[in-house]
Amino acid sequence: MGTIIIFSIVYLLSLFFYILIYNKSLEISGKYLEIIGPENQNLLRLKTVIFLRFLYGLSLVVIIILSFIYLMTF
Amino acid sequence: MADNLSNINHLEPGEEVIAIIHDYWIILVIPLVVYILGWVVFLSLYYVVDILKPVSFNVSFGALVFALIALLAAHHYFFIFYIVHFLSPLIVTNKRIIKIRSMPFFENTVIFVTIAFINEMDENRKGLLKNILNYGEVSFNNKAVKLQYIPYPEKFINLIDVLKTQKPLSTGDLKHMGATVPKKFDYLIR
């Protein structure tokens, strides 16, 4: 039981951090767009940022699932 | 940071974006190494956990928790750094240089430099790597403002000089800097 609680805290902290970074990156990219104007949107590498955000979340979920499966067999 | 961001001015009338320049790619190497190390620690400790399990449950469980925390820390560090890198370009307009860099809990930098107020520009490229790979630090007004990891700093200084002295923009050159420019300034990168 203690094991699951410890791992759950680690997982929740990680997810919280991910959500925080996700929101912050949306906020900053929005701010940049406001500064430079939508006509210059293509100058920012926003597709790369979107891809990184997706990869960040996906790999986090994969790590959590894999470690949880391992924990269950521990 | 939210307050800082909301106070940032938009482009003024007559102000237009000339170029957007990202920090040099060398800045991304350390987070990548940390991420790889995180996976190495994670996988090796998972192997050790299996060996330690019959000997001591507590030690093997501690190793398991440590392995997971090490990997997650490296994972967050890597992705936060990369996302912040791609979200923190240097915006050069015909009137200002704008730099915003925000890493939650760690960094919160907003730099505005009005080009008309720039009196001195220094380029600093100390070190073998900086000279081989052509990147360095550019500072303005007796090092009051410093911009680090600028690719081809001499080209950057030349561009600012062109904008300050209002020479034809075609005398600027941003080739090989990885800069993105509006279509009408395509000649800067060709």
Question: What can you see in these coordinates?
Answer:
- The complex is a heterodimer of chains A (74) and B (190).
- Chain A has 74 residues and is an all-alpha fold.
- Chain A has helices spanning 2-36, 46-73.
- The longest helix of chain A is centred in the first third of the chain and has 35 residues, at 2-36.
- The two termini of chain A are 13 Å apart.
- The relative contact order of chain A is 0.13.
- Chain B is an alpha+beta fold and 190 residues long.
- Chain B has 5 helices and 7 strands.
Question: Helices and strands in order, then pairings?
Answer:
The complex is a heterodimer of chains A (74) and B (190).
Chain A: H1 2-36, H2 46-73
Helix pairs in contact in A: 1-2
Chain B: H1 2-6, E1 17-21, H2 29-52, H3 57-86, E2 90-93, E3 96-103, E4 107-114, E5 121-124, H4 128-133, E6 135-140, E7 145-151, H5 153-164
Antiparallel strand pairs in B: 1-2, 2-3, 3-4, 5-6, 6-7
Helix pairs in contact in B: 2-3
Order of helices and strands of chain B: HEHHEEEEHEEH
The biggest chain-chain interface is:
A-B, 38 and 38 residues
**Main sheet characteristics of chain B:** 4 strands, antiparallel
Strands of chain B, count: 7
Distance between the termini of chain B: 37 Å
Order of helices and strands of chain A: HH
Q: Low-confidence parts of chain A, pLDDT < 50 over ≥5 residues?
A: none
Proportion of helical residues of chain A: over 70%
Question: Termini distance of chain A?
Answer: 13 Å
- Quaternary structure of the protein: heterodimer
* Rg for CA atoms of chain A: 17 Å
